[in-house]
Specification:
alpha+beta; about 120 residues; about 15% strand; Ybab, Chain: A
């Protein structure tokens, strides 16, 4: 009985090591993810990495007038928030491929992955 429990524990530890290795590979792929969102019918485009970093903003020159400042700010916020949302969705999809859809929760933090 004790031998069986030790074998189960060893198998669990082996699976945990494999998952950690797979998670490290997934994190590398996640850092390469780029998603872009537009606002104002393409007047503003914002690109975000899988790491949640804004990597690029493109603004149509027509918006660069003093009377458009408020609208420009709103479009940048809208495009940025949508790009961040898309980035989280892409990361979630990538992680589900590694975890088989398991909710990592505390286990994710142990593996060095913060999903918040």
């Amino acid at each position: 009985m004790l031998g069986n429990k030790m074998q189960q524990m060893n198998e669990a530890m082996s699976k945990l090591k494999d998952m950690k290795k797979n998670m490290a590979q997934a994190q590398k792929r996640i850092s390469l993810i780029r998603v872009t969102a537009s606002a104002g019918a393409g007047m503003v485009d914002v690109t975000v990495s899988g790491d949640g970093i804004v990597t690029n903003i493109k603004i149509n020159k027509e918006l660069l007038t003093s009377e458009n400042v408020g609208m420009l700010e709103d479009l940048i916020l809208s495009a940025t928030n949508e790009a961040l949302k898309k980035s989280k969705e892409a990361v979630s999809h990538e992680l589900k491929s590694v975890t088989g859809g398991l909710d990592l929760g505390v286990m994710g933090k142990m593996l060095g992955i913060d999903l918040d």
